[in-house]
Amino acid sequence: MEVWQDGQDLAVSVYTDFAAVKDFSFCDQIKRAAVSVSNNIAEGAERTTNTEFARFLDISKGFSGEVRSMYRLAHRLKMLEGTVADERCAQCQSISRQLGGFAKYLRKTKK
Question: What is the b/e burial string over 85-109, where b = at least 16 CB atoms within 10 angstroms of the residue's CB?
Fold first, then answer.
């Protein structure tokens, strides 16, 4: 799935962007949230009904929002440049749109 790949790409970007940041607690939180985006998509895909799958997509969307929020905070704390934060927030928004549309589709086609 393209959205799963986009989630994986986001996680790789997060690990790269925060590699030199010394705030372990902050970095751990954003890395966990980023990894949870694609992991929840994968877990949902293994469920037996579209309704269950859609629920995991909703959870994944929530983690995407968390990553976006943390990038804004990281910029305010001067952990990274605004251009990086803007780019990652745009990635997160794209992922969230895809997840929302996919979940809506799954709920219409109950299995």
Answer: beebbebbeebbebbeebbeebeee
